[in-house]
Amino acid sequence: MARRKKLLLLPTIIEKPIVATVLLGLVLTPALSQFQYQDVKVNRRQYPRTITINVGLGFQTLTVNRNALVAIIEANSAENAWTTVWNYGTGYIATKLVREGVCYVSPMDRVVMPALDSIAVLAEQTNNVKGESVLPRSIRYVVSRRQARELRTYGNDIFALCSGLPTFIAFEESQPEGGNQIFYNQDACYRLDVLNLLGIEYCRAGKV
């Protein structure tokens, strides 16, 4: 007699993959008082990059080059055109006033000025702020009568900006050259409102 074979049917188990989705959100606060100049994280693959920011009734162009450690800001207003170069490598900034045909070179205040990695993000935040804004930080420089020499020592971009123009050394008001007291007319200062982030004033000294 032939034996019957019993077939054991096992239930089929289909393993379903488990998918976990993580959403990472970045909240950008437009309030100027809450800007964290040193702690903004950016995608470094986006550099070098150029963006345009609305400032007052005009606009300014920001170019950031991480390889050269340089930020260049240009204001193209017909009445108030200027260009400022911030060289984070050499630690100097230079500003060319187009109408006056002059350049000013000064040490960089890294505490007051935004970090290179954060400047583009912060500028784009201020681009969304409507109406007049109160600049969160400002620097006042006093322009000496001493002309800058060997412009290449300040960086290639500063050399290209100021080459061929009278270029004077400017010192931060709180850090005068040699500790000497500086006299200047506070009503005769040239002011730059940079990217709605920073106010820079250049005041000509009576004696340095």
Helix and strand layout, with pairings?
Elements: E1 49-55, E2 58-65, E3 70-76, E4 81-87, E5 92-97, E6 102-107, H1 119-126, E7 137-147, H2 156-162, E8 167-172, E9 183-194, E10 198-207
Parallel strand pairs: 6-8, 7-10
Antiparallel strand pairs: 1-2, 2-3, 3-4, 4-5, 5-6, 7-8, 9-10
Helix content: under 10%
In whole angstroms, the N-to-C terminal distance is 122 Å
Tell me the strand order in the biggest sheet. Answer: 1-2-3-4-5-6-8-7-10-9
The chain-level structural class is mainly beta
- Strand content of the residues, in percent? 35-45%
Largest sheet: 10 strands, mixed
The helix/strand order is EEEEEEHEHEEE
Q: Mean pLDDT across all residues, rounded?
A: 76
Number of helical regions: 2
| Radius of gyration from the alpha-carbon trace, in angstroms | 27 Å
User: Which segments are poorly predicted (pLDDT under 50) over 5 or more consecutive residues?
Assistant: 5-46
Q: So what's the overall shape?
A: globular
Question: In total, how many beta strands?
Answer: 10
Summarize the structure.
This protein is mainly beta and 208 residues long.
Written description of the protein model:
The protein is 7% helix and 38% strand. It has 2 helices and 10 strands. Strand 5 (92-97) and strand 6 form a beta hairpin. The N and C termini lie far apart (122 Å). By secondary structure, it is mostly beta strands. It is globular. It has a 10-stranded mixed sheet with strand order 1-2-3-4-5-6-8-7-10-9, with helices on both faces.
